[in-house]
From TrEMBL:
Keywords: Oxidoreductase. One of its GO terms (molecular function) is magnesium ion binding. It comes from Granulicella pectinivorans. It comes from the Bacteria. Pfam families: Iso_dh (PF00180). One of its GO terms (biological process) is tricarboxylic acid cycle. Belongs to the isocitrate and isopropylmalate dehydrogenases family. Residues 6-334 form the Isopropylmalate dehydrogenase-like domain. This is Isocitrate dehydrogenase (NAD+). SMART domains: Iso_dh.
Length: 338
């Protein structure tokens, strides 16, 4: 008897409900052939949750993640300027999901300017300018505090090197701006260097973040594992997604000691929400990371093969990657390819 996996499902807002529905339908179709079984515990978060419950993150949602230990999450809009603080950041902090893992790899058949990309980003997920510690010094001066700790830096560095070791990767680049932020980025680099010394078989290098942006568009193939702080990681992730075809493709996992939340790199894309235009590939690939985390490799393999077949055929792709199909038609094509 296969175990039933209980997964907390946060559809989110914007394109979130569309890409989540597509992803769940694909997983359920694959599970029918492998006998895997899932129970989806659905919760709203953000503005939708506030309208219904008076809380941006309902208590029941916290309790569900605590119990299930695994969540699949669509994007939740973070209002710019005023309003509530980021739901995404709050969840990452609450469950101490310190490691944000983002593999960036071309899909077969999808032509881009940069073929043969295969790198992984490890983004520190709980500190840096994302601590949200901001004050108005006076009406004309705002201050934002950048917090970098030895603990935070060391554990993200360890995640990156452990992953490199286990997956046979050869190089880790720590990305920084320690020439300007001598203390904060200096501490981050010091911790990375100390961890690197424990992995002599892996080449360790340091690149300054602005140079990294140039290097990424001139010669992205030089990178293998990118290890970086929270804000640089956010920006570099979007840049790297552009190398392989855009934000519609790149998955992510937020990993902590006890829990994991799987979510795409992209945001809620309000410009295309509710129009059946969103590419669900990024969330689907996040779900593949989740399935492997749950040891459901057979189910993940079936989906991955079907996904790759749909891209290789190139007939039923969404608009962001040059196709004309909608979210639902794409999901149906993946199911049909199983
Ligand atoms: P956040 O601040 O939450 O990271 P963002 O400002 O980076 O959000 P996104 O919501 O990620 O912005 O959208 C950026 C652009 O990428 C938009 O034009 C959006 O339509 C497009 N985009 C994002 N995700 C997808 C997707 N899954 N499919 C198609 N287009 C997408
Ligand atoms: Mg973004």
């Amino acid at each position: 008897m296969a175990t039933t996996h209980k997964v907390t499902l946060i559809p989110g807002d914007g394109i979130g409900p569309e890409v989540t529905a597509a992803t769940v339908s694909i997983i359920e179709a694959a599970a029918k052939t492998t006998g895997a079984s899932f129970e989806w515990h659905r919760y709203d978060a953000g503005a939708d949750a506030f309208a219904k419950t008076g809380e941006y993150i309902p208590k029941e949602l916290y309790a569900s993640i605590e119990e299930n230990k695994v969540a699949l999450k669509g994007p939740v809009t973070t209002p710019i300027g005023g309003g509530f603080s980021s739901i995404n950041v709050t969840l990452r902090k609450k469950f101490d999901l310190y490691s944000n893992f983002r593999p960036v790899k071309n899909l077969p058949g999808l032509e881009t300017k940069f073929p043969g990309i295969d790198m992984v980003i490890f983004r520190e997920n709980t500190e840096d300018l994302y601590a949200g510690l901001e004050v108005m010094i006076n009406p004309d001066i705002a201050q934002s505090l950048k917090i970098i700790t030895r603990k935070g830096s060391t554990r993200i560095a360890r995640s990156a090197f452990e992953f490199a070791k286990k997956s046979g990767r050869k190089k880790v680049h720590a990305i920084h701006k320690a020439n300007i932020m001598k203390l904060s980025d200096g501490l981050f680099l010091k911790c990375c260097k100390e961890v690197a010394a424990e992995y002599p078989e892996i080449t360790y290098a340091e690149h300054i973040v602005d140079n990294t942006c140039m290097q990424l568009v001139m010669n992205p193939w030089q990178y293998d594992v990118i290890l970086t702080e929270n804000l640089y990681g956010d920006i570099l992730s979007d840049l790297c997604s552009g190398l392989i075809g855009g934000l519609g493709l790149v998955p992510g996992a937020n990993l902590g000691v006890n829990c994991a939340i799987f979510e795409a790199v992209h945001g809620s894309a309000p410009d295309i929400a509710g129009q059946d235009k969103a590419n669900p590939t990024a969330l689907l690939q996040s779900a593949l990371l989740m399935l492997r985390h749950l040891d459901e490799d057979a189910t993940a393999d079936i989906i991955q093969k079907a996904l790759e077949a749909v891209y290789a055929e190139g007939k039923t792709l969404t608009r962001d990657v040059g196709g004309t199909s909608g979210t639902k038609a794409f999901a149906d094509a993946v199911i049909a390819a199983m």
